[in-house]
Amino acid sequence: MPHKLELQSVFASYGATSVLKDVSLRVAAGGITALLGANGAGKTTTLRVISGVLRASAGRVLVDGEPLASRSPHAVAKLGVGHVPDGRGTLAELSVEDNLRVGGWLLPRDAQVREQAERMYEIFPALKPRRLQQAGTLSGGEQQMLAIARAMMPRPQLLLLDEPSFGVAPLVVERIFEVLRAINRSEGVSILLVEQNAKLALRTADYAYVLDSGRVALHGDSAQLRENETVQNSYLGA
């Protein structure tokens, strides 16, 4: 199966602090890949390197076989990469509608922005009656829906998600993950999912990697990792 995303021996640091140490991973085209690990393992840093927020100090990141090199986040987005960061990153003072319009900056015509916004309201119907409401006044689950919807506005083919379940009620989490699976199936969007809820992540993803102190400690089919004793003891509460 072709790869939508590939990291080859990536290293990354914050100043003098080394975070990623020779990380290699792949996301299959049309697949969902989970990235697991304890706090501080390097999961968020991995997404920031892919999206261009942080530059790798060594190694390569490729999307559809094309090296990203030192591209800016804007340039990475133009290649079809959407990023939902930790903390969601919605524009709190703007309305739901205006957040979506900001997310549609890559679409060439206003009509396409309106059409895609309506598509997002179909995917996340809870947002439609709140379209004129300030994003900062939404519930945690609604803000997460908006963050995903905004990232989907330019019609990306690769979606990076950082802890979409964080601070969200369990029933809403299930709904969000149903939507992610639907987006993957119906629109062919490849997904790289960082998620603390390992059980949910492994139930959702086809393949998974486990980071430990900035290195890939384990990887394999999600079904295999669910049976792995180390994963069970460390992440699944077995």
UniProtKB/TrEMBL annotation:
The keyword Nucleus is assigned to this record: no
- Read off the SUPFAM superfamilies from this record: P-loop containing nucleoside triphosphate hydrolases (SSF52540)
Query: Which GO-annotated molecular functions does the record name?
Result: ATP binding; ATP hydrolysis activity; branched-chain amino acid transmembrane transporter activity
UniProt key word Ribonucleoprotein: no
Database matches in CDD domains: ABC_TM1139_LivF_branched (cd03224)
Listed InterPro entries = AAA+_ATPase, ABC_transporter-like_ATP-bd, ABC_transporter-like_CS, BCAA_Transport_ATP-bd_LivF, P-loop_NTPase
* A single GO BP: L-amino acid transport
Q: Which Pfam families match?
A: ABC_tran
> Which family does the similarity line name?
Belongs to the ABC transporter superfamily.
| UniProt protein name | ABC transporter ATP-binding protein
What organism does this protein naturally occur in?
Caenimonas aquaedulcis
* UniProt lineage: Bacteria, Pseudomonadati, Pseudomonadota, Betaproteobacteria, Burkholderiales
